[in-house]
Amino acid sequence: MRHSRQRELILDIITGNTTHPTADAIYVAAREREPNISLGTVYRNLKVLAEEDKLVTLETQDKKIHYDYNVLPHGHFICDRCGKIYDMFYEDGQIGKLAERGFSVSGAKCVYYGVCAECGKKEKN
Amino acid sequence: MRHSRQRELILDIITGNTTHPTADAIYVAAREREPNISLGTVYRNLKVLAEEDKLVTLETQDKKIHYDYNVLPHGHFICDRCGKIYDMFYEDGQIGKLAERGFSVSGAKCVYYGVCAECGKKEKN
DNA sequence: TCCTAAATAGTAATGATTATCATTATTATA
DNA sequence: TATAATAATGATAATCATTACTATTTAGGA
Questions:
Q1: pLDDT tens string B69-121
Q2: Which residues of A1-125 form beta strands (DSSP E)?
Q3: How far is B23 from B65, CA to CA, in rounded Å?
Q4: Do residues A85 and A62 lie in contact, with contact meaning Cβ atoms separated by under 8 Å?
Q5: In angstroms, rounded to a whole number, what is the distance separating the alpha carbons of residues A120 and B18?
Q6: Which conformational region is residue A63 in: left (phi greater than 0), alpha (psi within -120 to 50 degrees), or beta?
Q7: How many whole angstroms separate alpha carbon A32 and alpha carbon A29?
Q8: Cβ neighbourhood burial of A124 (10 Å; 0-12, 13-18, 19+)
Q9: What's the CATH architecture for B5-68?
Q10: Tell me: domain A74-124, CATH 3.40.190.10, correct?
């Protein structure tokens, strides 16, 4: 993978950004510093960076991919009203702690990724 | 909400269906019994049924919404290789039990939904 | 039966993401 | 340092899941 000014810029924009921005939001921010950057370039690099585990994607009900620079394992809370995405770093008693902070949880979606038993067997052969 | 043959059919197709089908797959199945049913009708009813908590949506990396008739709280495991979606009904030691069954977990995405503290405060006013 | 609003079928529109491709930029090597 | 090979870009077109639109049909109560 070759170095590029644009990819550097995108990484710089998301690093430390806790707003879980969409590709478009990143594009808008990028144009402030690199006015000719293309939306396609933003998408392409976000995809590459996600494949390299430099960032993590979050598929939500708004049908836009949100990007998270924080690749450490943690969960998210999405407000049904304002749509804001909060990070959840604690592992134990998550819902209880959210309640203490005034967050009411009405539902959860947990998805695990990996290789299933069937495919694991095939790969051994 | 008025009764409709089409909505009944869609509910019948997903009830007990553990494959987490997409709208298109449901459409294909529906056409076998109702050849003139419209794709729009399928989408419209799936949306309504989800709003009525008759089914649950699952947003995945394939950019298609998957529908789950099982509205009881449970998680999912998506195989990176074959894309198959498995249900996870146990609450404790989930990853450990998956490993016992030959599933290797490489990552997880947990999203909680509800109302955040800020919006909750506004609603009280 | 008749009326009214909800639901449908068919189709067009939307919008996020991807693909394409000619051009530019990076980097290894002579 | 110049050059060659090719990865990356910018601009734009294409894709495709989902939604909107609209004329027509249908459910179900008066």
A1: 999 989 999 999 899 999 998 666 777 888 999 999 999 999 999 999 999 99
A2: 56-59, 65-68, 75-79, 85-88, 104-115
A3: 7
A4: no
A5: 21
A6: left
A7: 6
A8: exposed
A9: Orthogonal Bundle (1.10)
A10: no
Instruction: Verify whether the Cβ–Cβ distance B78 to A118 is below 8 Å.
Output: no
Q: What is the pLDDT of residues A27-75, one digit of tens each?
A: 999 999 999 999 999 999 999 999 999 999 999 999 999 999 999 989 9
* Tokens representing residue B57 in the block: 């949506």
Q: Which amino acid makes up residue B44?
A: R
Q: What are the structure tokens assigned to A125, written together?
A: 């052969």
CA-based end-to-end distance of chain A:
32
pTM of this prediction? Answer: 0.94
Q: How far apart are CA A10 and CA A31, in angstroms?
A: 10
At a 7 A CB cut-off, the residues bordering strand C are A 2-5, 22-24, 39-40, 43, 47, 63-65; B 1-2, 4, 6-7, 34, 36-41, 44-45, 63
Residue boundaries of the structural domains of chain B: 5-68, 74-124
